[in-house]
Write a structure and sequence with these properties.
This protein is α+β, with helices and mostly antiparallel strands. It contains three helices and six strands, in the order αβαββββαβ.
């Protein structure tokens, strides 16, 4: 799974990303995390907060990140993966 993620990031870093508002990004990451939790059959709750903007895009072309999450800490790696997946395709307006 991690290998696919890294391969996608390195091949798609120059691909144009769709522009979305902070709320749209938050909702998409929340949807993806909720979907993964449902697949795991876990009733854990995780609340995703709005992203913040980088002053300059990072070397992979991301112009935003998410710093805080509320809920079960054991899922922070899953959240990080979903944040990275959305970062690969969406930029903050």
């Amino acid at each position: 799974m991690a290998g696919e993620w890294l391969k996608r990031l390195t091949t798609e870093r120059d691909r144009p990303r769709e522009l979305h508002t902070a709320e749209e990004i938050r909702v998409e990451v929340q949807r993806r995390v909720d979907e993964k939790l449902a697949e795991l059959g876990d009733d854990a709750t995780v609340e995703i907060h709005e992203p913040y903007r980088y002053a300059e895009p990072d070397p992979l072309g991301h112009n935003w990140a998410m710093r805080s999450f509320t809920g079960d800490r054991e899922y922070f790696k899953l959240i990080g993966l979903e944040v990275a997946n959305v970062q690969a395709i969406w930029n903050l307006k």
